[in-house]
Amino acid sequence: MTSAHPTDLTQCTAHQLLALYRSGEASPVDTTRALLARIERLNPILNAFTLVDEDVALRCAQSSEAKWRAHRQSGGQGHDVGALEGVPVSIKDLILTKGWPTLRGSRTIDPKQVWDVDAPVTARLKEAGAVLFAKTTTPEFGCKGETNSPATGYTRNPWHLDKTPGGSSGGTAAAVAAGLGPLGVGTDGAGSVRIPAAFCGNFGLKPSFGRVPAYPLSPFGSVAHLGPHSMNVQDAALMMNVMKQADARDWTSLPADNTDYLHRLNEGVRGLRIAYSPTLGYARHVHPEVAAAVDNAVKVLEQLGAHVEQVDPGIEDPLEITTGLWFLGALTVWKSLSLAQQDVTDPDFKAQALLGEKFSALDIQQLNLRRGALGSHMRQFMQPYDLLVTPAVAVPAFDIRAPGQQSMTPEAMLGWTPFSYPFNLTQQPASTIPCGLTQEGLPIGVQFVGRMFDDAMVLRASRAYESVCPILRPKI
């Protein structure tokens, strides 16, 4: 292999793998075999996957290898390859995948039923030639910002095995950070892509709501987004080009998007107008190392030519809105379960559902009206700014905890991540990118929030920052 690429295929980005396939220096089968060997060694430690299908992965890799061989032999004429041809991608175990059970981190779902539907994102990845090889761990029904459940146990952080990888896309983040596949698909209902990206030191993007179609719709409603986890920003942009494709099954999805998210990715931030809010005006407990690292990241953006103004958006903490709507979603799922199923659920999920029972129809309407007012306020606030920058999470990764270890209050559930959930309510695009390490060696993330529908700007700013502050990898 050339010196431009890591010699270990499991440490290559998607773009590096595609370049190796194009030149014939490596093949999708080589990559998949190396990946499966690494999974065999590390997954018993990390518990990032609920399912690994070696046969399907190798069969897909062999098909991709044949396509690349024909492509090279034809000089690229008449033998097209997919945008992700031969690149390994994992799928969070909340997302339907034909032929594999989608158990949602729960013991209440029968794995032996017929699994014959691909969710939109799964279908688009397959069409693009991705090698789907595994389902990643999630807390039950994606119900919290940690990845543990009675069904799957604990998932561990590759940077420090006693720490949580975050959640609910914790398995996805742990896998990408540990070199167990360069790309993964996560979901984000209150920070579930961005929290684990921050804790595990990856790039994570929550696109504008509806940009990536979903089916079936989440029981948690229109706060739930689908987004990419990746080793770098360029790979996430490539994933977005695939994942954004329209699917009529999602009636909430946005119109077809012709944007090529790679096209203007490297245009930098010079001249951009950035609002920097270290606390959003209400976060009271931001870890000092997090605050310092994010402040330094903002200085980097200024050095790159951005015009930065420190300003708060003038909002109150929308925690009550978020958790109220979330508890109602939990109640929706809870009421669909039999008494026997309810008896084997995660105590944290049960506590959320029971809290949901306390809301009246009027309460629900008032929550939605308050959400609408917040969304309107943020759209107006963003008019003079291209981006809003905040910390990603207020704290570094904390110790792994057992389900039911803490009382289920809004503060216990999400009080430590006050920067993530507002932008599920407003549905704006937001990314997390690493911006340093604590003295303990744990990743810290900075968050870039864009105007609604301007996902390309969030990716562009993230790429500009990454170009001078490359993402570090854990040694595991």
Approximate strand percentage: 5-15%
Name the helicity range: 25-40%
* DSSP, total strands: 13
Strand order of the largest sheet: 1-3-2-6-8-7-12-13-11-9-10
Q: Which radius of gyration do the C-alpha atoms yield?
A: 21 Å
Kindly list the characteristics that best describe this protein:
15 helices; 13 strands; two-stranded antiparallel sheet; 476 residues
Walk me through this protein's architecture.
55% of the residues are buried. The mean pLDDT is 97. The strands form 2 sheets. Strands 1-3-2-6-8-7-12-13-11-9-10 form an 11-stranded mixed β-sheet, sandwiched between helices. Strands 4-5 form a two-stranded antiparallel sheet. Helices cover 37% and strands 13% of the residues. The chain is globular. The longest helix is centred in the C-terminal third of the chain and has 21 residues. The chain has 15 helices and 13 strands. It starts with 13 loop residues before the first helix and ends in an 8-residue tail after the last helix. With 476 residues, the protein is of the alpha/beta class. α9 crosses α11.
Please give a quick description of this structure.
The chain is an alpha/beta fold and 476 residues long. It has 15 helices and 13 strands.
Break the fold down into its secondary structure elements and pairings.
Elements: H1 14-23, H2 28-46, E1 49-52, H3 54-73, E2 88-92, H4 120-127, E3 131-136, E4 148-149, E5 153-154, H5 170-177, E6 183-188, H6 194-200, E7 203-206, E8 225-230, H7 233-243, E9 273-276, H8 288-303, E10 307-310, H9 319-335, H10 339-342, H11 347-356, H12 361-381, E11 387-391, H13 410-414, H14 422-425, E12 430-437, E13 443-450, H15 455-468
